[in-house]
Amino acid sequence: MAAQDETTGETAPPRAAAGGRPPRIVVFDSGIGGLSVAREIRAARPDAEIVYVADDAGFPYGDREEGELIARIVDLAGRLIAAHHPDVFVVACNTASTLVLPHLRAAQTVTFVGTVPAIKPAATTTRTRMISVLATPGTVKRDYTRALIDTYASHVEVTLVGSTMLARLAEDHLSGRPVEDAAILREIRPCFRRHGGRRTDRIVLACTHYPFLLDHFRRLAPWEVEWIDPAPAIARRVVQLLGAVPGGRGRGAGRAIFTSGADPSPALARVLDGFGLTSARGAP
User: Of 93, 116, 242, 277, which is the active-site residue?
Assistant: First the structure.
């Protein structure tokens, strides 16, 4: 078995699309944050068929009890796999990946690619030896996150910041609802630390919702830092698994499924359309 990737949490061997057809990829998240990952996958494999699944009926995952969350995701993933037969199943959610990936792999044979905090890239590139991990409270408390720090960042000062509001604020932003700068600043301010003449210079975006607020983060930050988004690395891993785009293929189909059965707002529908996704009710 391949060594585990510290950005994607993926261990399974490559698996080509069946019958020479364009690959089918399920991208799964608790809400619409995983669209940041779907966007990068679409750019890297424009021919792929993407089934984006937002478990908005279960959102937010960070507030759920672990046993309940494991059972929910394993059951939902099983139904999605049976319905859509994906070549790759991307868990585009840090909270879910750091908790549920071993259970998913034990239950299914499909190739899973997870999303785990990009602590190694931050720790290997920091110049001040001060990094922060901005995540949901669930991701912050996971043993998986602590193990990544022990393995890759024991030589640097790591600040873990568990935000209770940013995922909701990102959902509001993408859905066209107003978000207040003050609310965002309250959530990111603890990431910025000073110590002995040094200060934080790398912040890991350990929730796929957060890149959609990146313009706000950059504008509100007390000083310039490098914000590390794992989505490009996830897309690269998907391409490694599926191969490069064959010649002569056009843009692949795409749809977005919301488990609540609710229709997206007009603003979100425009975002989905920009990613080549049409909305569908229910899951699977």
Answer: 93
